[in-house]
Structures
1.
Amino acid sequence: MTRARRPKAPAAKPAAAAAVATALPPTGDQFPGSGYVPAIGRIPILDLQPQLVDNLFPTKGYVGDVVPFSCVSFREGHDIIGVELVLTAPGAQAARIRMRPGPKGTDSWLAEAQVTVAGTHEWWIEAWNDDFATWQHNAEIKIPAGIDVDVMLELGAQVVDRAATNPELTSHQSAVLRDAATASRFTSRSASFRLASLLADDVLEVIEAHPVRSLVTSSAKRRIQVDRALAGNAAWYEFFPRSEGATQAPDGSWTSGTFRTAAERVPAVAAMNFDVLYVPPIHPIGRTNRKGPNNSLTTEPGDPGSPWAIGAAEGGHRDIHPDLGTVEDFRYFVSEIEKNGMELALDLALQATPDHPWVAEHPDWFTQLPDGSIAYAENPPKKYQDIYPINFDGDRNGLYAEVLETVEYWIELGVKIFRVDNPHTKPLQFWEWLIHEVNAKHPEVIFLAEAFTRPAIMHALAKAGFQQSYTYFTWRNTKTELEEYLTEVSKESSDFLRPNFFVNTPDILTEYLQQGGRNAAKIRAVVAATSSPLWGVYAGFELAENVARPGSEENIDNEKYEYKQRDWAAQEASGYSLAPLLTKLNELRRANPALQQLRNFEVQFSDNENVLVFSKHLPGEYSPDGVSNTVIVAVNLNHSGIEEATVYIDQTKFGFAADTEFGVEDLLSGHEWIWGGANYVRLDPSTLPAHILRVRHSAL
């Protein structure tokens, strides 16, 4: 089913509406001449949105998503038309939603619908001549002017007579219309009385709900793929299982953490209100060309290597690193995650070390060089000597089948989410095929694309099936950069790309975080958690780990290449840890449905280039409690000092009149104020760098 936003006028037609025209022309008549059937219907319906430009793939939504729809529709002459969105959810009757006119002179029509069921939805648009509205417009001009009075009244009575025959009406509704038509034909009464009979409130109420339609025209059908809620609204946390519970002996040697010790960290992650726990690859790690600390080319005995260097004598992509435990230990780990109200995301990295069984068993899955060697992975100037990239064209069917079976193997072990490493280095066609095959059997499975690459490729991956995408958010730090980028992902690409705003990764420690330390981490967390319904952090972010390896954008002593111990409890006891802030941010996200939407991001103005202000508003008809939910975020982007600003709010974005004053509550500090069009803020990054304000609607 869908929950639809219905304009005050005209009203929406009930679900059991008249049958939809399925061919052009609607009557099915043949045209003379060659029999050519115009692509344009009797009433043109053009520029349907949302749809992808190439129309190869459906647009996207997720359960709870409020989807905007629009089209351009008009007809010749001056008759008034009506336009209606028809939306069908899997297994449900079509919902019919009257569209409202867009800006004057554009011939655009707009509507929104909240999708509440997962699966493929079909939608189309119907337009028709609104016979009653056309008559009413003409009658209200002509009759008071004494022009064609009797003719206009009889035309109105005939339209109402037709309306009364609608089989969807109740007997009472039909009687209301018949009585009005009869009264309008009392020639002994005044013209104003007769006109008023046809325009009585009870008549208009019936006609508004059941328009009198002619020349009904239907557009072609479009699709929306609606995924489960977690595909569009979730907070992610990443950690390395081998570090959780790892111990170091006095001689410097390490004992790896296991799935059992990692499970002990799970309740703390869940206590921060995260929804997804993501772990890097858990497979055997190759020994040939194994990387040492800080990505060095030399290793010492006991260096664990990079988890992304997959494959050893112990096995490959369907095997577990012996240090982490057994399949039963993995099942236990998954069960503990689920017991704590989260889901596990597993890394899917399609690459192999020289030691991977695939190398010996399927050499045609790799690129052979003229000297007989196999090409290793490169991202110049970076070189990954411990990894062989896969050649997807050597034995396509064999490789594709192996990957599908591998993904299904982990699904059987309880994995429903895959974070895909470097998908842009594999064929787009492969991902389209794989995600289709997996989702056909397991529609609940979610794929996140880790593709920091050119926009066209990132967009194509999302269109081809990836339910989530990493983005350029980590490198957007100034007010202008953020305003432009947040507007782009919430408006321009929101029909197909769901941005997951990770604030850091094992590979990404931005200059902003390096320079700003703890203050910068707070600022980035606030922006990410409130501007997008998807966001994530990599372990250590809450401790503001910000020391980079010289000349790089990576943490020094990077956890990709070695074990890392962190004293979480001590850092929280000292008050240094940002875990309380992350906990609060995730709590606010769950409590405010406006923050669970992507498309509702709106920039608000401040007179300070270091103060970013934006709002997210959800009308009451889409909110679980029926009350509009509005959140205003004002954040100081200067991690080094206090900033003051005047914030100018467009209250009309929240359904208020332009001059309305309204109450706000700061969800971080608990303070309350009265706000209006212009408001003063003072933000100190050393304490709370932001206001997260919930607008009080219920008391208005």
2.
Amino acid sequence: MSPEAHSAPRSLAEALRARDDASLAALLRSRPDLITPVPTDLTQLATRAGTRASVLRALERLDRFALQTAEALAVAPDPASYDTLLGLMAGDAGDETVAGALPRAVACLREQALVWGGDDRLRLVRTARELLAPSPQHPSPTGLGPTVQEATSGMSPGRIQEIVTTAGLPSTHDSVSAVTALTALFTHRKKMAKLLAGAPEAAREVLTRLVWGPPYGQVTADPAAHLRWLLDRGLLLPTTPGTVVLPREVALHLREGRAHRTPEPLPPAVTPAATHSPQVVDATAAGQAYTALATVEELLKDWDEGGPAVLRAGGLSVRDLKRTAVALDVSEPVAAFWVELAYAAGLIASDGEADERYAATPAYDEWLEQPPAERWARLAQAWLAATRTPGLVGGRDAKDRTLSALGPGLDRSAAPEVRHRVLSLLTALPQGAAPDAASVLARLRWERPLRGAQRDGDDLRSRLARWALSEAELLGVTGRGALSAHGRALLGAPAAATPAAGSGSAAAGSAEPTGPGDKLPVHHHRAADRLVPLAAAEQAVATAAAARLLAPLLPEPLDHVLLQADLTAVAPGPLRRPLADMLGVLADVESKGGATVYRFTPASVRRALDAGRTAADLHAFLAEHSRTPVPQPLAYLIDDVARRHGHLRVGAASAYVRCDDDTLLNEILADRRAAALRLRRLAPTVLAAQTDPATLLEGLRAMGYAPAAESAEGDVLITRAHAHRTPPRTAPEPVPDGPPPPDATLLSAAIRAIRAGDLAATTPRKPVGEPLAGGELPRTSSAETLATMQAAVLTGDSVWIGYVNADGAASQRVIAPVRVEGGFVTAYDHTADEVRTFPLHRITGVAELADD
């Protein structure tokens, strides 16, 4: 036996044992479920790596070509050589592109511990083979059927001999050799070509229909002559009554050796749909970022005194979402996005009261005090990490219940990864290039074929990608579809991108990741770091950089408006907060856009007077903040409303109206519109009503009067909006997609612990009494244990012990005793990689290690 064969791994555990620490770290980083909890040794790591749930999760993170490679190995002999695999992937004629990409795919499968063994003996992990190998219940994506051996397993020996003879082969003494001879015939290209040359034309048409799958067909009890010809020679084999299958070896001959009809070694390129100037893109994105801030502020201002009620099942009602959409002047899906974004950023939450309502949180007031760019960065960072998916609002859950905004059931753990990946693909395009959405979806389906199995683009991953593109535009991360400079910084990407060859195609040696988890083999890993989601600390730095780039692009707040004679005011840009707040009370917003138009009405002026302002205050305010003279109609409007404001006084009796002008009270009594208020005169200057003061105020205002409310002492009540805030709330935590990737510190500690545990489990030992069963701890008497320990202290040798801790958990360890005294042994513990003290009474036994 050659040295190479002797050193070849015999199991996945041995293959892992031969890896260096960097390779083990790559495995644990790409499959974090293997490290939760930390395995005790490499044998346990290999066992865990072969479990169905872990293998399925690893397969879901393979790109299409790596998955096609695994599928080819599942239909290849076990083990298979690299040349055999290459033949299945590239076919008899060969394919240079496939041949060039196959080493990367095999290296990826090895890194993921889905394949082990040398190039002469490639083995697919048994669980992966069971998941990918073809069966009647689970057809293979390759379209191949069972082998001749599998298809003839239940066939009578006589029938097998008939098939062998009819196929032109000599008869054999047993079924095994007959099946072997038939398999050899079907895998011999020249002999198979000669056999098929004599097939009827109709028989060849049947084979053509079955060759790319599905390989099963139906036949009658008395098949036609061309079908009988195929059945007699084993080119079709019966499986169940009335059903036949095309053997795998025959299909591979007809396919010229290819396992897949269309191998896809390279990812589809992300192509630009349009190209704009980078300056135009940044300016457009900045304008949309400002609109995003204004929209969120308007939403929270609308909910300032207490927002919509919380449904019993949680979330907003359909009616409240429609009302919010009207208030924001957007569609309902867009309104759901803004509501969910504010919730993800921790700006709104439920107040937790008995009559539960949504309201702004204390964090909203802190957010308002921040500079605009920092406020946007907080929203963008929350969006990037959120697992809640506004696009699902209005859909149905598994129990056919409507999914509501802010309600349960909107978390999709894949959302952050898809969102980040979509934006990362945009970084590979030239600056200013907007991608073709279809090419982005095709690329994502290539990178995660199992998670996006539907090719019609309606799978969850494709929908998440489409939502990511539209939401990035709404938020101002992109402008005109292209990634902005501050959007690029938000991802931690370089400030200026170098256009990749083919605008994102994965040429050989490209730094762009094309493998599982967006990672290349270890030697390419650093080049791909910018395309993987950042850690929390790195993301905070990237977000701050994005804010710095955005800040100069946002418009500077203004301290003035332009008053016009038609009782409107035009704000040519964003206003400073005190001015905007006061103008929001004094006037109504008529239109939005690049410039906001406010309209002054009697009701809006009365609103300002109700808030405690006087006519003189309003005149002074307008004169101070207008770049144009105060128009005479506006001055007359303010004076007219102020003259009538408070002339009528409403207080609580049930309610009453008093006025020094009895003529005005007579006018009210005579007005038909006052009938619903049920007024009657108590005195020449006082009317009583059978309604509450608030209803009376609204009724008189609807009639065109300007009454003022008064207190029990007769003072005018000033009505200001009282902000309603929830108790301190934390933003919703994203729902992770499995265990989080371990950091470098955890990886280093885990690998050290696994190595130490493996050393304790695999170090050769001298026999102790009777031979021990696998995993059984050594057993020695107390005297023997003490004597062996003392001898090891003198010689400096390491020993193997069985140890039971205070919790009753048993383990085996390799230790180097340093001192034995007082019923304790102090030793260097190779398993824990530190010096520890062990009570002698907890040591079950001790054995010397073998000399080699």
3.
Amino acid sequence: MLTQLSLRHLTLLGTSLLGSTFLLVTAESRAATPQPVPAHSVSGAHKQARTTPAARKAKAAQTPRHETEVSGGTEAVVVTGTREFGKKARDSIAPVDIVTNRQLTGTGQPTLRDSLALLLPSLTVPTGGFDAGALTDSISLRGLNPNETLVLVDGKRRHTTANIYADGGPAQGSTPVDIDMIPMAMIDHIEVLRDGASAQYGSDAIAGVVNIILKKQNHGLTMRSNTGITSEGDGFQQGVFIDGGLNLNNRGFVHIGGDFVHQDHTFRSGNDNRTHTDVNQLLGQPEQTRESVAINAGYDITDDIQAYAGATYAHRHAESYQNYRLPSSLAKYPGYAAIYPYGYSPIEALEEDDYELTAGLKGTLAGWHWDVSSVFGRDYDAVNADSTTNVGLYTATGETPTSFAAQSYNNTQWTNSVDLSRKFRTSFWPYAINVAGGASYRYEAYAIGTGSPASYNYSSSDGFPGTNPANAGKWSRDVAAGYLDISTNLMKHWQVDLAGRVEHYTDVGNTKTGKISTRYDFSPRFAIRGTFSNGFHAPTLAQEHYSALSVSPTAASGIIAANSPGALSNGASALKSESSTSAEGGIIVEPIKQLHVTVDVYQIDLRDRIMPGGSIYGDQARKALLADNFKLPPEASTWTGSQLATHWFANVANTRTQGLDLTATYPTDFGRYGHADWDVAINLNRTRLRHQASSSNGTPLLTAQYIAYITTAYPRSKIIFGGTWHSARNKWAVSVHEIRYGETTSQLTYYTGPYAYSTSHYLEFQNVPKWTTNASVTYNISPRWSATIGGNNIFAKFPSVVPEGNRYLGVPKYYMSTSQLGMNGGYYYLDVSARF
């Protein structure tokens, strides 16, 4: 609880000085402060319909200087899931959650990923992570792998990270868009389409689409500082967020913003059973420092043609601990025993550079809206192994570095597209027909760089071996696509939307997708809607070509490329695209005045899911790794069972995901005592295995552990409910929300006892449901300044504790390979913001 903070915690919190974008009061929201209400209850979409410079100038003259160009509630204009201009959220044919900047900052979290996780029940994030998997911020929708969620920025496909999530768990194999590389200060709002949309946007839009809309205001300066710490007294975080807009001769705008965020390590490990101390720091949040900047600009060349451009750049330094090595491991190497007299914990250190450039022209011609754009994005990751050794190199040469350039990855995406749309009115049809179409060409490239020779020769850098030349390389492909989208009314209150898309990949062939959506409004207070579609996810270049080895004190685990000699000799085959069939139906109802309720049910049949499969162990794994030129430590010759394992990415299974989304909002007016906004949002979700694939030699591709990753590692439910009270003059605001995380079930490896390192016997482990409380109190110091003190998970709930016999070396007391409650405990923060 807040009252349990120590003086040291409060002193750290008190360093917060600056602020953000949310002081503004709109007539509709009546709130001058940011509050962490669920995303469905307030919207803030920037108007996308084009106007002439003269019209915009006239509008600006009527608008106070500090008001934003957003609208609240169901009146927001949305651009995701529709090709029509001026479509309002209340009329959406598919379910769309709208998250405003004010809601994001109101969570008190310095990162976009963690903010969204507190607002959207259908969105989950990993419980924790280790190795490189902890160094990329991924999100999942509807209990599916992060690769099945498409991320757009201002409607344009965003490039993905080069850092693959290679560790075991439901996110394994994903190279998602790292949304935290986009400055939070530059985000106007986010539209989350909870619907399959491959026919509209292409690969990856199976679970849904996240469209990040950047700010376009041509005036103002906003500042925000966020300072926080966990309930355990570690994990100190500091974020500074600044953005502002400039007017270009009343014909355009430039908006510039940036973030600086630092996060310290948290330590959640159990005692190491070799030392019976907490010296092993494997489990916890990695240390991270991230700087990001962005610019967004537009200019009216004529009244009908606008040029636009934008750029984002981010740099991240992050460090994650590996398992602790005992001093005895260096007994034969006195020179390095002196360097590490108390043993050592290898560190995996990431230096990441990420940028994206966008340029385009859009306008109207003969009634057609047209948009021609080019987007180039790149993510480069250099991964070093620090505070470690190569004892094999020392034995051979008498010396070894303690820091190694181990691995590097590069992901490039260049997308060029043309989009057209027009609304037709004809004599033979009584309703307007909106026709949209377009084409795109995308170049994708993925490269794995070779580590320094000292990192992969002899016994390799301990803990994190370098990439050898045989597993390095560069691969690319071309993607061409075309789509057509037609929407109209069949009756006055009956909408229908038809979309179709064809795509060609030079490595995996052709795909065809389609979608039909419909909505019928029985009255202004009751409507139904439904969608039927098919979709796909093309295997990423990383899934096709990535290989790496992770070495622990008494075990090693590798991933080898599906087309490598080691994989092919064990029955591997080329990857195919995942394909899906989705059905969704829902209602929008206002049973009593101002009580807004939506309920949507969905089913996603996903075929040929891509996950690691064909796991092999012991001597069989040793032969496969050696065939792929991996170097193993000398003691690996005695390892048995799952102490030595490897696998490759494969099309492993068909699954069926079913679920329900519910949202409801209701306001209460207390007169001179202010007003309250109440809200509830629920996601129920379940995935079942329908078919498991086998390798070419007849061996099943999945173990019970990997079946659990696919089917039960995501919570069966997530519920967010609560309310926000505002005083009559908006000086004060108090927000309280509860989040309930449903159960997850995992199959845990035994590390002691008769089933130690078994590949067929696992412990079924239930991570039981958890309740957390988020609360904040905001005081508006002046019309420009406000301060918020609050906490997330204020009663410091933690995941269920893993039994001792199922913890490697006794260390991971919380299971990292799920997406339920995070392992950091409570987080308390002070947020100060200003707008000028």
4.
Amino acid sequence: MPVRCDETAAWARLQQLQATRRSFDLRQAFAGDADRAAALSQEAPYVFADLSKNLIDAEVEQALLQLAADCGLEAKRAALFSGEPINSTEGRAVMHWLLRTPADATGLAPAAAAELPAVHETLDAMLAYAEKVRADHTITDVVNIGIGGSDLGPQMAVLALAEQVAPGKHFHFVSNVDGHELAGVLKGLAPEHTLFLIASKTFTTAETMANAQSAKRWYEQSGGTDIASHFAALTTNVEAARAFGIDTTFGFWDWVGGRYSMWSAIGLPVALAIGADGFRRLLAGAHAMDEHFRTAPLVQNLPVRLGLLDVWYRNFLGFTSRCIAPYHSALRRVPAYLQQLEMESNGKQVDLDGRPLAVGTSPVLWGEPGTNGQHAYFQMLHQGTDVVPLEFVAVRQPAHSLEGHHAKLLANALAQAQALMVGKADAGGHRNFPGNRPSSFFVLDELTPESLGAFIAMYEHRVFVSGAIWGINSFDQWGVELGKVLAKDLEPRLASGDVQGLDASTAQLLGRLKQG
């Protein structure tokens, strides 16, 4: 039976350190240690991280590293990269990292090496199709229909890399089963100029297939006659796609979880947007971070340091929330993407053996781009009663030439991080900023496919680290199933009005919402 994190000697040591650090003050920490910024910063592929404004010191980091050792983090990392079925509740390996592994890679575990040729065969076919569509000037609009990982990743990446999107191509993303979303997208489209991508691993996802059927009806009712040329499927259910009328399909494997699938055929919208070379650069950036995570000593390993910091904040300092503020408008969907990545992965209450956990797991992750957030929720971050660790993401080089804008943007990011730490005293109270509020600061030199790939891979591995410490399965998502089952029962009741067997609240609400 695996060692539980809260039963290790390192955990007890961290509890002692937490008790002695209730008065830890960042301002004093900087004043007493001229090397603090350098010691608590980390260079990793395409990402620089300044962690020095966090409520940690060398002693805490050392205890956290010991916790990692006590919990067998290195062995768990090795199991990830060896293709072992670490998704134990579904009996699956977790090898999304293989999707960005070069075709000529050596030294892979047998399970990974056996899959690599098929990975690149599918990648090559997908990218060849992407280049064909990019060269077809009759296709002006691409509509991706998916949900969850089949929507958030591609949408986030296409927006992030908008400066590199092919001219004359417009990308739309439909995920919500709310028909207002699809109807709004379809209003401005012409069937002869539109390509629909249906992204569903099983080709049975309820929301996706409802939208797909409506898109097909719109296409046919608008005069479209060639479904095979205007629809493609990102799925493993080739037969269902063919029955739908789709001939062009690209599949992926059961060791690719939905929220880790942007690197697979699910990333076709990204390849259509930035081209085959751009997509390969995205994969290369992620692979560089994979290698850093796989090989760097834990003490110099950025995803490891971040994951351990998350455990320190969640379990010892009691912070239940974390905010991310990307200071780049192109990264505006990054918070939504990371919400799924972290909370769907680590929002668990039992360990790998199904035993109830005695410790907290995933924090609530949320955020908006800077500087917008400064005029919304930053008030609470500076003067609220709860302490919320904040993560800044800044890009050194802008992709525009508008004079003065980028300097103002970066100055705001720096100023907010500084203000959260130093605060400002005011005897009257209303203008008192307590300071000592923690933050991390990430710097990308430029927003490129490589840096985006590395940044997202860094977060993936960070989530793995904290989940490994907690001893949970970060790769299943049973929590999304119950509501789906109940929705199937309730949908016909909205027409019939049948409330038999329902609780009083649901029955009352169904009566209010009954259609017809």
